[in-house]
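Milestone M4 deliverable, item 7.
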Amino acid sequence: MKLRRAGRPGRAPDPTRAERPHTLSRVILRTFGWSFLFHRGGLVTGLILRRASGLVLVAILIVLEVSLSFDNAVVNAKVLERMSPFWHACSSPSACWSRCSVCAWHSRCLSSG
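Output delivered:
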């Protein structure tokens, strides 16, 4: 005799629904893992070198850095919004380097797209 889990009668439970929190946490750790590691390393270093005042100083600097990074991202998005499609494709340094490293203003490079 096979027992069914609670849910809609006659339907098997959705396995992806139970896995979502674990998958989300894995994605967050995979994306921001190094950032979290450096964040903790900076806080521990500040604590070791200057005790509580160092910890507070490093925490303030981290908050300022994050807020300025978000502000810079918003400004860059607004500037990129007004640029031509060519520069949209060249918005990342690697794409720009591979696509138009030397001939950015050359007509052949500008026409390729």
